[in-house]
Design a protein that fits this description.
This protein is α/β, with parallel strands linked by helices and about 240 residues long. About 30% of the residues lie in helices and about 30% in strands. The chain is built from seven helices and twelve strands. It has helices at about 20-30, 40-50, 70-80, 95-105, 115-130, 130-135, 220-230; strands at about 10-15, 35-40, 55-60, 85-90, 110, 140, 145-150, 155-165, 165-170, 180-185, 195-205, 210-215. Strands 7-8-9-12-11-10 form a six-stranded antiparallel barrel. Helix 1 (about 20-30) crosses helix 5 and helix 2 (about 40-50) runs parallel beside helix 3 (about 70-80). The chain is globular, with a radius of gyration of 18 Å. About 35% of the residues are buried. Mean pLDDT is about 85; it is low at about 1-5 and about 235-239.
């Protein structure tokens, strides 16, 4: 298994609620990472300004002050020519217009601020370790749906991280070894039937997840996957 996940990262957590800050800090520090917490927009900008070169990820509340959340993200970007990854707490999004504006600013995604502690690190891992989670060349759609997978006589359930035409990434604290043969079953959002596919483990990140490359998929199922990815994929490129 890859040992990349053992590399310590520094995450800036910005939220005005101690309960949220403390839970994310606990999850990160429990895995050996460094968590820096702030509770106001002024503190957030000051910390980005002072520690930009040391930060690996910002996880933030859009409602830190009377200032527009979009303007706050824009202010971070002015301090940040390297395009530091930013995640936004999903419960602080108010409108579809905000989602579009955040995408234009290169926000990497959204995370549930009320996730159980054991689910926090897997939700952050694709942004902390992008080289391990972005192995496939085709477009990927962020997708959190249930999936069942079978390895030998063992059947397990998990949630997906993303989907491409060629495979699917799942979050699990017990990933399998590379090249293991796995049978998977999942249902695309809006579909009424399951997709059953043969796959192999293409990459594995200890305690966080693994990527499964499709090896045997029925033509109709592959067409449904391709259509879903094409319909839902969008990517914010660096300027």
């Amino acid at each position: 298994m890859s040992t990349a996940a053992t590399s310590a990262k520094t995450v800036l957590i910005a939220d005005d609620t101690a309960f949220v800050r403390d839970r994310f800090k606990t999850a990160l520090e429990g895995a050996g990472h460094r968590a820096v917490t702030v509770k106001s927009a002024a503190e957030l900008l000051a910390r980005v300004r002072a520690d930009l070169s040391q930060l690996d990820l910002v996880v933030m509340d859009l409602r830190l002050s009377n200032t527009s959340g979009i303007e706050l993200v824009r202010s971070i970007r002015k301090l940040d020519p390297t395009r530091l990854p930013i995640l936004v707490f999903s419960g602080t999004i108010a409108t579809a217009d905000e989602v579009r504006d955040l995408a234009a600013l290169g926000v990497a995604g959204y995370v549930n601020e009320y996730s159980a502690v054991q689910h926090i690190l897997p939700s952050l891992a694709p942004h902390l370790f992008p080289d391990d989670f972005n192995r496939r060349g085709s477009p990927r759609v962020v997708l959190g749906i249930p999936i069942a997978y079978r390895f030998g006589n063992t059947i397990a359930a998990a949630l997906t991280l993303n989907l491409s035409r060629g495979g699917i990434a799942i979050r699990t604290t017990s990933p399998l070894e590379n090249d293991a043969k796995v049978r998977i079953r999942f249902r695309l959002p809006g579909s009424k039937r399951d997709i059953d596919a043969g796959s192999r483990v293409a990459w594995s990140v200890q305690r966080n997840g693994m990527g499964l490359q499709f090896e045997k998929v029925e033509p109709a199922d592959q067409a449904a996957i391709d259509e879903f990815v094409d319909a839902h994929f969008f990517s914010s490129r660096k300027a």
